[in-house]
């Protein structure tokens, strides 16, 4: 009797931990993929999503790590008599299960979108009061990623709402990435670590390098605004839970320099890399940026530490990101309107990341090989001596980015 009891206990513990393991490692590194919103807003349909899935596989993006194909707002039809949500059949004639199968057959994952409130930001049905039904429906369809927005949430408690959806997804039994889109209003970085896999830290991005877009009741952030908002939040990010400064605008109208700076900084900040352009027909310049595997490796580094804004000097911003194995990523960002030449002495950058990793650069004691992440060339080594090592010109709205490889 006693033995059977122990055996039962062990079996239950094993089943519970096996169940928990399903949700482990979903977000060991920041999520990568594509979303329909930045380019298409509500004008989406099955043809666009299947076309994107095909392009993702054909262009090498899938191999580079872009896994999720995320349908944002406006896929919704109506709830059926039982309250189960249906897709808009004029936009998605084969339905969501068919679409998930299509994407899975090509080795990728499908994401979908809902809202904690009564309606989404575009006025589609929200999940409030239907969380368990919606989670079950997504799981049945084979959905792998859920973005949950925050419109129309009067009197809804954010922590409670996201906890409810998180529990509902687990109860539905399919591992689904939970991307919280609460815009940072209730400081989710303080409480969402065990609820969602990433959380938005601010308002929506728009395709601008440094201008704020102001509406009567809201604003949209530029690339630089997103960076400033994320700057102070690095201690909250890590394996399984990431700060999200919003989806990428690369390829949507900024200059190549601005796109390069945008992409580099998202990688330095260990941000989700969710493409927002039409990858079915992109320029070579855009392709080269989003397919820069050495830069993607900085974002996806297994140490999982968000980069550190070490200092700003002479108009330039200096960023460091500790990487696994003793390497560092180092970026000089020029947010000004003029090119700036800087005389670099490595000894000015002896720093210790006391806040997060505890790692020190120790340029006085270590030597690093210097790998330029945009020209893909080695540029010599760092020096232990205090001397001006090199003059670096950083063009306006651009970056110079290195991987410092410890010898
Ligand atoms: C909000 C979100 C955006 C997008 C739209 C859809 O504004 O922050 O990312 O999902 O809603 O309506």
Describe the structure.
This protein has 407 residues and is α/β, with parallel strands linked by helices. It has two domains: 3-299, Alpha-Beta Barrel (TIM Barrel); 308-406, Immunoglobulin-like. It is built from eleven helices and 20 strands. It has helices spanning 2-21, 37-40, 46-58, 61-64, 95-105, 131-141, 158-172, 223-231, 256-268, 284-290, 293-299; strands at 32-35, 68-70, 76-79, 85-87, 109-115, 145-149, 177-180, 198-200, 213-214, 219-220, 242-244, 273-275, 308-313, 316-322, 328-334, 340-344, 368-372, 377-381, 390-394, 398-406. It has an eight-stranded parallel beta sheet. The radius of gyration is 22 Å and the shape is globular. The model has no long low-confidence stretch (mean pLDDT 95).
Fold blueprint:
Elements: H1 2-21, E1 32-35, H2 37-40, H3 46-58, H4 61-64, E2 68-70, E3 76-79, E4 85-87, H5 95-105, E5 109-115, H6 131-141, E6 145-149, H7 158-172, E7 177-180, E8 198-200, E9 213-214, E10 219-220, H8 223-231, E11 242-244, H9 256-268, E12 273-275, H10 284-290, H11 293-299, E13 308-313, E14 316-322, E15 328-334, E16 340-344, E17 368-372, E18 377-381, E19 390-394, E20 398-406
Parallel strand pairs: 1-2, 1-12, 2-5, 5-6, 6-7, 7-8, 8-11
Antiparallel strand pairs: 3-4, 9-10, 13-14, 14-15, 15-20, 16-19, 17-18, 17-20
The structure holds alpha-D-galactopyranose.
């Amino acid at each position: 009797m006693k033995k059977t009891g122990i055996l039962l206990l062990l079996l239950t513990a094993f089943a519970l931990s096996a169940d928990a393991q399903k949700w482990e490692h979903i977000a060991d590194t920041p999520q990568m993929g594509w979303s329909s919103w930045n380019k298409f807003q509500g004008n989406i349909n099955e043809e666009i999503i299947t076309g994107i899935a095909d392009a993702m596989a054909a262009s090498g993006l899938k191999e580079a790590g872009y896994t999720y194909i995320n349908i944002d707002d406006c896929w919704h039809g109506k709830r059926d008599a039982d309250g189960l949500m249906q897709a808009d059949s004029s936009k998605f004639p084969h339905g969501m299960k068919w679409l998930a199968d299509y994407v899975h057959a090509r080795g990728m994952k499908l994401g979908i979108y809902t809202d904690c409130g009564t309606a989404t930001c575009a006025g589609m049905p929200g999940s409030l009061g239907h969380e368990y039904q919606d989670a079950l429906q997504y799981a049945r369809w084979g959905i792998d990623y859920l973005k949950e927005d925050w419109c129309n949430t009067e009197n809804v408690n954010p922590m409670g709402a996201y906890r409810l959806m998180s529990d509902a997804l687990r109860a539905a039994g399919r591992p689904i990435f939970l991307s919280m889109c609460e815009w940072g209003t209730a400081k989710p970085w303080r409480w969402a670590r065990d609820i969602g896999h990433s959380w938005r830290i601010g308002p929506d991005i728009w395709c601008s390098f440094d201008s704020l877009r102001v509406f009567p009741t809201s604003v949209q952030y530029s690339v630089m605004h997103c960076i400033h908002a994320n700057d102070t939040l690095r201690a909250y990010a890590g394996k399984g839970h990431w700060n999200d400064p919003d989806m990428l605008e690369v390829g949507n109208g900024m200059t190549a320099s601005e796109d390069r700076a945008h992409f580099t900084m998202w990688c330095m900040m260990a941000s989700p890399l969710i493409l927002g352009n039409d990858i079915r027909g992109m320029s070579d310049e855009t392709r080269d940026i989003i397919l820069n595997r050495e830069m993607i490796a900085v974002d996806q580094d297994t140490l999982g530490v968000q980069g550190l804004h070490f200092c700003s000097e002479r108009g330039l911003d200096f960023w460091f990101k500790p990487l696994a194995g003793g390497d560092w990523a180092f970026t000089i960002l020029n947010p000004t309107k003029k090119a700036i030449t800087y005389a670099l002495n490595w000894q000015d950058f002896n720093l210790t990341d006391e806040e997060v990793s505890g790692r020190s650069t120790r340029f006085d004691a270590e030597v690093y090989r210097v790998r330029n992440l945009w020209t893909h060339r080695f540029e010599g080594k760092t020096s232990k001596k205090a001397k001006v090592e090199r003059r670096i010109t950083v063009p306006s709205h651009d970056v110079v980015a290195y991987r410092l490889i410890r010898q």
